[in-house]
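Risk register update: the risk that structure generation would not scale has been downgraded. Supporting records follow, first protein first.
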Amino acid sequence: MTPDTCLKIAKTAGHLLSNKNIKKNRVIISKDTRLSSYIFEPLMTSGLVSMGMDVILTGPLPTPALSMLIISLRADMGVMITASHNTYEYNGLKFFDSTGNKISKELENQIENIVLNEDNYNKIPTKGLKTGTATRFDDTVGRYSEYLKLSIERNQNFKNIKVVLDCANGATYQIAPTIFWELGCNVISINNKPNGKNINDKCGAVNVEQLSKKVLDSKSDIGFAFDGDGDRLIIVDEKGHTIDGDRILALLSKELINNNTLNKKTVVSTVMSNLGFENYLKNILDVKLIRTAVGDINVIEEMKKNSLSLGGEQSGHIIFGKYSKTGDGILTSLKILEILKKSKIKTSKLFNIYDSYPQEKINIPLNGKLKNDLIDKINNLSFDCKKKKPHLRYVIRESGTEFLLRILVEGKNEEEVKKEINNLSNNIKAIINV
């Protein structure tokens, strides 16, 4: 992401996503707290304004807040400047349409094909366009807070619940502590002082070590860790143990089944989800699990296609079809607090509803995207492994955000799983010559 590329993306997106039936399109631009977001925000604004669009600037705000504001402010599109869970050196763009949904992969590819081809880019019409305006809107945090509070039971009060919030020095740093305090929690906040470079730095949903220690030291009831743009949630119980997205989905599935509000008795997750979680849904709740490729957009598209009400990822994206069109860490944490208060039991017991299968994960650094011949060799190796040991589950995939090959092996025997992933990793390294 260079400044030049950002400007090209802005003009291209403005060209492709504009509503040609109206004179002026309204666009909302939000960002997280990383340093480069303050560079890309004016560039994105300039590109869209030059295409005749009126831009509304919100400042730092969680990604799900942008999705909500698009509807609230009757906008035609939205742009979130963020690299999500990655550290400050990275940045990226998330585009949303007029319904608050992320744009499709096909539309993303159209934008890329124009930006990366000078001839195509030069065909974007600019003559005769009246430039738009840019306005900074100050009421966004208040609107999002009220929206979140309306998602929980009326007159809900979380008094006497002691909560630690790890804001990852990201987009939730203002709104999360305030809303939990407003709802009566005894709030302790950590990593809520962003400086542009400390976002996701050994904190938040990607690293809960600090949160776990703080929960134990403060004798808190529960800890919530958000990622840089606030669309993920990982929980820490009162014993300092990590609760991942699978267990969060399992508890929410149980709650929705009890309330008879789980559409089609089906939940969507990804290939990374634990077999213990899948067996719990199937054998205890009589709920079907649909697995997709990794990425919250894949989960969301499957939910939309089948009109489903709950989905998510092991990494902490949780999507409530009733309330949000994207993962929302704060919303999910409030729904968990509702269940916790109603249950009147400890957090650790609340989530102790199934036994996980041992999973081992390894990331192998890559020099760039894998070539097709290497992908074929790795796929053949994976096929042979599955044939020899069908009782184990294998997932091998390239990361969507970094030059990494991610490997997962899962099975009932922890020792066998560890041995198998080491053998597999060594064989893959030999193939790609790492």
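Supporting record for the second protein:
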Amino acid sequence: MEFGISFGALYADPQTYLRYSVEGEKLGYSYLFYPDSQTLYRDPFVNIGAASAATGRVKLGTLVSSVLTRHPTVLAASAITAYEVSGGRFVLVVGAGDSSVRRIGIRPASVQEFEKSVKHLQDLIAGKEFDVGMGRFGIRYANHRAPIYVAATGKRMLGVSGRVGDGSVIMVGPALTKWAVDRVRESCEEAGLDFEKRELFWCGFCVIHEDSRLAKKLVKPSVSWFCTNYPDLVNMLGANLPRDFWDNVEKLRSNYARYDLVHSHTWTQAVEDASFIPDELADKLALAGDLEEVEAKLRDIERMGISKIIIRPPAHELWYEVFKSFGENIIFRFR
């Protein structure tokens, strides 16, 4: 298997990103992903440019770029330039939009809008021209094949990820992985594409701690993201939920500015706010536990045909600890 780390939740300066990028390559990570949410993080393409000069093997990408906050021509130009400056090591991951759009008052792209934008991006990167009413234009220097992957969680977006782009970044919990892979497979087959040639990444929140219950407690603010945005998926799990569970979820959903726990300023408070989430959900929706538990879940995901894993530590306070522990204690077990 190959492993990647998301710099999501690491609200740090470019020098820190660069230092950890170099360390990540040494620890054995195959991919480094930089978040693209302008009110939370520094610009990912600048960080990728710096990391390109300081690393030599690891692949570098965005996770996740929005087709709304960056015009397709702008995003395509950035992707091509990053691909060139990294010597072909860049990968672009795009999505319908989450924190990058919600925090500036824009709704995420509809499934139809998003699919159309991804196809436009592919055409732009491939050097194709398009009509703007004043004539036909394209990106004159587009002569490379920068890969595009679609990040997806819900059923419809998983379907899009099977039809367009070079592959899927499946952002679901371990217990939903088979369901998600089946959705991508169905979409590929309906589109007449070879599923076996699709590249599949699995991306999930991760906390490793010798105290398994503490690990689950610490990951619950991240798990709240599934509860507020994808209640249907939570219901699919058949978990034993407290009577007031959905009332508490609605409280989080009704005040995004206060309860966007996955991007919380204070993780201690976020853990308290998410304490109503049962351990069972944390177990099913995240890589949370001791080393043996985390390895066992990864083995299960591997058996589903996924060979690329991206972990996302849940908080700034925990980021380096998870990054270091996973690199030193998990990656070598899969070599």
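The chain has 15 helices and twelve strands. On this basis the risk owner (M.S.) recommends closing the item.
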